[in-house]
Structures are given as C-alpha cells and as structure tokens.
Specification:
about 240 residues, alpha+beta, about 20% strand, four-stranded mixed beta sheet, three-stranded antiparallel beta sheet
Length: about 240
C-alpha cells in the first residue's frame, strides 16, 4: 500500500494547475470555479483542459487521503477503525459533474470497460466454489464461510450469489439478505482490498450499486479484509445486528 501512495503522489506531481476546483449548479447548468491565492476565479469552457486536470487533481488528493487512512486501518487496532475509515473519493464519484469527467473514456477504454462488465455479469464459475458450510452451501472463501455461518446461526434468511438485475446487466452479490419486514440487503465481502486493481473494480461495482439505489448503511453491507488484516467475525456479527434484523 505504501507503493500505491507513492504512485498517487507521483501522479499529483505531474499536474501543474494550482488551486482547488468546485462546481456550482443552477437549473441543471454547471459552472466551474477554482479557488487559489485567496480568491475565486471562474473557469469557462475555454479552460476545458484546466478543468479536467483540476478535477483529476482533486480526486487524486481525496484518493490519497483514503489510501493513507486505509493504511492506518491496517496498522491500528480494531477499536480505532471507525475513526480512520473514510470514503472521500467514492463520495466525489457519486456527484455527476465530477464523475462525467473522471469516468469519461475514449472508444478503446469503453470497449475494455464493456468487456469487464460482461465478465462481471456472467454466472460465476462453479469450479471456484471450494469451501463447504455446515448448512450445505458451497462458497468461495473461508471468510464467506464465516459470513454464511453467522447469518445461519442468527436465523437470517439469505441466498448466496443470487442473480439480481443492475442497470443492463446481471450481478451476483455475495449474499442477498431478506429481512423479516421484506426489505432486501445486499452483502459484498471485499477480500482483496489491498490489491489496487481489485479495489478499483470493487469501487466501480459499488458505484453501480449506488446508481441503482443500494447504499452502504442503508441496504448494502460491505466488509473488507487484506492479507495482513483478515475478516474479524465480530465485525460480521455487528453488521448482522445493525442491518439484518
């Protein structure tokens, strides 16, 4: 993760534009401003390159902050996790005026994105199901055994990798929980969150959930682990008590 922090810092050094960008919206129209040297400056459409660079700069700064806090998570004890856990960059992506720039891709990148989406929306490979649970469900990891067992022991109604329609594709959340009142909760366990490629794909998937009305803390549960910080069963019990009753 230290290497990823250095990589983000190097990218930031390539952006020469100064100041902090922010948008204003009125009647659906977005105007961009930059705050620098103690004053606000308007950026017109002629400043398109500067706008894009400043938006990317802002995102990288927030992503760097998230990554540093994630590193702190790994280095501190469980009681301090809530203090350091942040998702500033993800919140920025939820705002359309930012995401339209950050997620803009050319034709080639769009084709690559479509290929990734197709991979995600295909039915999961059954040969990857290797871990047996006491209730007879076969899952993909030891951590998923912990989650499935905890749900079962708490008499929570759930299905494993139940297909759901998200936008134009079919997705397979790790667990789909049905509460007693009929509400549906999706549960994704992110088991390789210290892998940059995995984390970026996970962020895009979570963003897709958000676009379709699934939000963490409301009807979406996200649990995490890394090679050095495995899933804590107490965290699983906490999520069940908070979200699944």
């Amino acid at each position: 993760m230290e290497g990823e922090i250095s990589e983000i810092q190097e990218k930031l050094e390539t952006i020469t534009e100064e100041g902090t960008i922010y948008p204003t919206q009125k009647d659906g129209n977005v105007k961009w401003y930059v705050w620098k040297n103690g004053r606000r400056e308007y950026l017109s459409k002629k400043n398109d390159k500067e706008i894009k660079n400043l938006v990317n700069k802002k995102y990288l700064e927030l992503y760097l902050k998230d990554t540093i806090n994630e590193l702190r998570l790994l280095e501190t004890n469980r009681k301090a996790r809530k203090k350091y856990k942040t998702d500033y960059a993800q919140k920025m992506l939820k705002q359309k005026h930012y995401s339209s720039i950050l997620l803009a891709v050319d034709k080639k990148e769009n084709e690559e994105t479509n290929e990734e989406t197709n991979e995600k929306t295909q039915a999961p490979n059954p040969e990857a199901l290797k871990f047996y649970t006491k209730m007879g469900i076969i899952v993909r990891s030891k951590s998923e055994v912990i989650i499935a067992t905890a749900l079962y022991d708490n008499n929570i109604n759930f299905e494993y990798e139940k297909p759901i329609k998200i936008s134009n594709g079919i997705y397979y959340p790790d667990f789909t929980v049905e509460k007693k009142n009929g509400d549906i909760i999706l549960w994704e366990h992110l088991g390789l969150i210290d892998n940059p490629d995995y984390r970026n794909k996970a962020y895009r998937k979570i963003l897709k959930y958000n676009e379709n009305g699934y939000y963490q803390g409301k009807n979406l549960i996200l649990t995490y682990e890394t090679a050095e910080s495995p899933l804590d069963p107490m965290d699983v019990e906490y999520e069940i008590e908070k979200m699944c009753r």
